[in-house]
Specification:
The complex is a heterodimer of chains A (503) and B (167).
Chain A lengths: L2 H7 L4 H19 L5 H12 L4 H18 L1 H6 L9 H12 L3 H35 L3 H17 L5 H15 L2 E2 L6 E2 L13 H20 L19 H23 L5 H15 L11 H25 L5 H13 L5 H6 L2 H30 L5 H20 L2 H19 L5 H24 L2 H4 L2 H38 L1
Antiparallel strand pairs in A: 1-2
Chain B lengths: L19 H23 L15 H23 L15 H23 L2 H16 L4 H22 L5
Helix pairs in contact in B: 1-2, 3-4, 4-5
Classes of the chains: A mainly alpha (503), B mainly alpha (167).
InterPro entries (chain B): DUF1468
Pfam families (chain B): TctB
Protein name (chain B): Tripartite tricarboxylate transporter TctB family protein
């Protein structure tokens, strides 16, 4: 049977369809709650999906991933607060449209743009995943080590001007990844005689702690009464007219292109793509002055671009073993527990998995679009729910979900400790993404580096064009942002000094 | 539903939101301490039969040195920078009440861990929900009776019945 038929027919199982429905509802809900990110939701869901078979489990996680990118537009449009970081650019024009009495149009056009963007990403996944993994199959230890460094530095490079702190976070993650048995000799390291640590720090517990518990702890710490913004109540007309569709075509095309490219780059997600897509569409628009003031083109470009990253992120994650964004970093943890090792050999051994995953994402997109168009008013009601219900639910679900992974109280303790570590990182401006990435990729990095050096010494890395290229791009990703900032600061100072004498 | 917290949330004075320098120097100090501890612990890892060129200590020692260097870089960069700079990623200020609430919630969670050993999961979890909701500011029978019982039932159905987790 062809992999395409085999992959899609695996989705006919009613359990998978049920999981997609459950994931879509959950994803829409978590997306709609500001403060609950898709990363956090997938981390939370990992706790209970690990008891499922891999495909139904993947269906839940991937659908949450897709649907959260629809639900998060609701608070972005109605209260000017992104439900997840991926909808930051939605607020630029979405809230302005809502204030002009066009909230209904903003919500539906955003949903259609998001659906289109996701579909473009899924097509990219189906077309590019297998060739990319075939290319990566030729990678030896030197190239694999360089690939891990590339993934890690890309995540650090996009962590917003905090390069040293990002590097420290990556180093901490790699160090935590060294806990357990040595990948080559099997010698126990940093286990302190605790049997639960001999397989390393439990991924899922650490991830839930860093993304779920830490976020809730921070919200509890900074919460103030009566600070919420009153949601928009006047929705106006809901469905785009023919002229609106015509206006949306160009930004959809621009957003699709930007999102697809950004999605493939490891560790960059919908937040960056949304802003870049919005900016590119503004440059290409005949009415750039309307951007940021309630432009239909603006909201369309931002949402198409941010959602077009999903397919690219999944492609990079599954084909190369490098997380496409932070949600994928979390999902890798679950996949490893299921025995699915993302990386070049995955699609060589299981090509049908590409089509199953693409199928799940397609169905999830359709379901999320239908929910978005039909039930936006209902989702909008959620914004009025008090935070304390959410905190209690997240805290208890995190604990029980983590316990359920291995029926282990030790894992729950690890989760709480990582929650406190995550809170420290958050309060002191250290990105948690590189810690998770280092924790997950640490063994891969160490094993491949040691093998590469054992085989041919440093020359083994320095004579490989692919490894050198990846390491060069990694270096640029770390060096260029601070240099650019310094250059801009110098230019600003120069401009200031030339204007001061005149004034 | 309105938040029914009775005491106002006054922003905590002083260190509730660490200053820019402190926000760099504390992680630098923590990173250096962690690196030193990791290096010391790494030197105690058994070398084994040395069948390969690199011992099991090599990678953790390398990472510890790297972390130490980065911590020094962060501290040096902070001390050299002018003290008045624009903070782009400043965290929202913590409130004194938020800190107490968080401490009380963590204590409730620790208490729940103990209670679970002695009392049935459904009862102990419902009690935890009551405690967390009350600490979060929830009041009234819907928040303190209906919500805890309803969510505990869902939790038990999902994990205990459907996923057969021994709770």
């Amino acid at each position: 049977m062809s992999p395409i038929v085999e992959g899609f027919s695996a989705l006919l199982d009613p359990t998978v369809l049920l999981c997609i429905a459950a994931g879509a509802l959950l994803g829409m809900l978590v997306g709609a709650f500001p403060g609950v990110t898709a990363t956090m939701a997938v981390a939370l869901a990992s706790g209970f999906t690990l008891s499922l078979e891999p495909l139904p489990g993947l269906a839940v996680l991937l659908t949450i991933y897709v649907a959260a990118n629809f639900g998060d537009r609701v608070p972005a449009i109605l209260i000017n607060t992104p439900g997840t970081p991926a909808s930051i650019a939605t607020t630029f024009d979405g809230y302005a449209m809502a204030r002009q009495g066009k909230a209904g149009l903003a919500l539906t056009s955003s949903a259609f743009a998001s659906a289109w963007g996701t579909l473009v990403g899924v097509v990219l996944l189906m077309v590019a995943a297998i060739p990319l993994s075939r290319l990566a199959l030729n990678f030896g230890p030197a190239e694999m080590f360089a690939l891990v460094v590339f993934g890690l530095t890309m995540m650090i490079g996009v962590s917003g001007g905090r390069i040293v702190k990002g590097l420290m976070a990556g180093g901490l993650g790699l160090l935590l990844g060294a806990v357990g048995r040595d990948p080559i000799t099997g010698t126990p390291r940093f286990t302190f005689g605790v049997p639960e640590l001999s397989d390393g720090i439990p991924f899922i517990a650490a991830i839930i702690g860093l993304f779920g518990i830490a976020e809730v702890m921070n919200q509890i710490l900074v919460h103030r009464r009566g600070r919420g913004v009153e949601p928009i109540k006047d929705f106006g007309r809901w469905f785009p007219r023919r002229s609106d569709w015509r206006t949306m075509l160009k930004p959809m095309a621009v957003g699709s292109g930007v999102g697809a490219v950004v999605g493939v780059v490891p560790a960059t997600g919908g937040d960056i793509a949304g802003i870049l897509g919005w900016d590119q569409a503004r440059r290409a628009s005949k009415r750039p002055e309307e951007f940021g003031k309630g432009s239909l083109e603006g909201i369309t470009a931002a949402d198409t671009s941010s959602n077009a990253t999903l397919g690219g992120s999944v492609t990079t994650t599954l084909a190369l073993g490098l997380p496409g964004d932070s949600v994928m970093a979390v999902m890798i943890g679950s996949m490893v527990v299921w025995g699915i090792q993302p990386g070049p050999s995955l699609f060589a051994n299981q090509p049908e998995l590409v089509y199953s995953i693409a199928g799940i994402m397609l169905i999830a997109t359709v379901v999320a679009l239908v929910i978005s168009v039909l039930r936006m008013r209902g989702v909008a009601k959620l914004l009025e729910l008090p935070q304390h219900f959410l905190w209690a639910v997240i805290l208890v679900f995190c604990m029980v979900g983590t316990y359920a992974v291995n029926n282990s109280v030790f894992d729950v303790a690890v989760m709480i400790v990582f929650g406190l570590v995550g809170l420290f990182l958050k309060r002191f401006g250290i990105p948690p993404g590189p810690v998770v990435l280092g924790l997950i990729l640490g063994t891969l990095a160490e094993g491949n580096l040691r093998r590469a050096l054992e085989i041919g010494g440093p020359e083994n890395i320095l004579t490989s064009p692919i490894a050198l290229g990846l390491l060069a791009v990694s270096t640029l990703a770390l060096v260029v942002p601070p240099l650019r900032t310094a250059w801009r600061a110098r230019r600003a100072r120069a401009a200031e000094s030339t204007t001061t004498p005149a004034s | 539903m309105a938040d029914t917290t009775t005491t106002p949330d006054a922003p905590a004075s002083g260190g509730a939101r660490p200053g820019r320098r402190l926000r760099d120097l504390v992680p630098a100090a923590a990173g250096a301490a962690l690196a030193a501890a990791a290096f010391a612990l790494a030197t105690q890892i058994p070398e084994g039969a040395r069948l390969t060129q690199f011992s099991p200590r090599w990678w953790p020692e390398l990472l510890a040195v790297l972390l130490l260097l980065l911590s020094v870089c962060l501290a040096a960069g902070t001390l050299r920078r002018p003290s008045v700079t624009v903070e782009e990623d400043e965290p929202e200020a913590a409130t004194r009440q938020g800190a107490w609430r968080l401490a009380a919630m963590l204590a409730s969670i620790a208490g729940y861990g103990v209670l679970w050993y002695f009392v049935d999961f459904r009862v102990s979890t419902a009690i935890l929900f009551v405690a967390l909701t009350w600490l979060g500011g929830g009041r009234g029978w819907k928040a303190l009776i209906l919500f805890p019982i309803g969510v505990t039932a869902i939790l038990y159905l999902l994990f205990g019945v459907l996923l057969r987790v021994p709770l």
